[in-house]
Amino acid sequence: MGGDEVAVEIEAAAPEDDNDNDNDNGLPFQEDAMEDVPARVTFIDYLKSPVINLLVGQGDEQALLTAHQALLVTSPWFAEACARFSDEVSERRIDLIDEDLDAVGCFLEFLYTGDYFPRKLPRSRELERDLSLPSVDETGDQLLKHARVYTLGETLNLPSLKSLASSKIHCVNSTAKGEIAYARYVYAHTQKDDQSIRAPVANFWATRSHTLRAEAEDEFRMMCLEFPQFGYDVLTRVLDEKLKREKTEKLHPTSTPSGSSRKRIRNI
């Protein structure tokens, strides 16, 4: 009797066979971990989404464009606009009549390809050559193209598009009048605290106004009168640079031979 009772207790305490829950390597399956892996979204998935009509521009420049909703909603602005559509809506249209047609076209090209023309050349500060445009931007139109894409990126809350447009602005070879046209647009269409695009404009004119002003003095004066903030920003940087030079000269004074009336070389 006693031996039989011990045998029963040992058999009852033996662990159950868990082989049914093991994989071929003897390791337990992790079904929950497999379920947490999100399905890959393919380009076909984007193309299967509803088509949105975009009415862009006004007058002769107005055009009806189309784009897939799944791509548009990567922009928080479009995500909010598309959220208003119900499943029963037959036509999905969003009006962008106050936006520039070319800028919206660049935005859509960016959505579908990750860039827009002209692209930056690899390992270079140059852009692809557009043979329909002059190599030097005399009017500022090439600068304004990227500036409009930048402000559209701000509206649509797309930092990556803003960053891309800003990088291309610095690759454009322009003239003084072209730079003034660009500066006017920037100070008219960006926020005062947007230093990522305003600061380079002010720095450009603060360091080059002594030479460029001769090429576009009337335009420069009108710019300062039209946008006092521009004049203030440029003047601030000029004075800051002057103070920096004076501080450097005090720390490292240059010796001038006695009796010499030669003036100190002007720092340009």
From TrEMBL:
Q: Which InterPro entries match?
A: SKP1/BTB/POZ_sf
UniProt-annotated stretches for the region Disordered = 1-30, 246-268
Taxonomically, which superkingdom?
Eukaryota
Where in the sequence does UniProt note compositional bias of the Acidic residues kind?
A: 14-23
What is the protein's name according to its record? BTB domain-containing protein
